[in-house]
Amino acid sequence: xxxxxxxxxxxxxxxxxxxxxxxxxxxxxxxxxxxxxxxxxxxxxxxxxxxxxxxxxxxxxxxxxxxxxxxxxxxxxxxxxxxxxxxxxxxxxxxxxxxxxxxxxxxxxxx
Length: 111
Description:
Order of helices and strands: HEHEHEHHHH
Strand order of the largest sheet: 1-2-3
Low-confidence stretches: none
Helix content: 55-70%
Mean pLDDT: 87
Strand content: 5-15%
Radius of gyration: 15 Å
C-alpha cells in the first residue's frame, strides 16, 4: 500500500540498470500508474519500450541523454500519457495471464 501511494503521485520512473534485464515489472507498473518509464537503451528494457510503444530510452552511461529524456518526459507528459488508451488493448494482449501460460506451456512442452 505504501508503494502504491508513491506510484500514484509519480510522473516518471527511471531504470538505469547496466544489466540486461529481461522483462522488468516496473515497465508494466509504470503503464498501470500513468508513469512514463525512462529506460536504458539495451536488453529487455529497450525491448519492452519498443514492444509497448510506451516510454523513453536513454543511452547507458550518458548523463546528457538521460537528462534530455527526463526533460522530454516532464515537458511532454500529457501528450505521452494521452497515447496510452490506444495502447491498452495491445498491452493486455501482450501480457495477459493466458498468453503467458500458453507461451510457457509451448516452451516446456515435449514434442
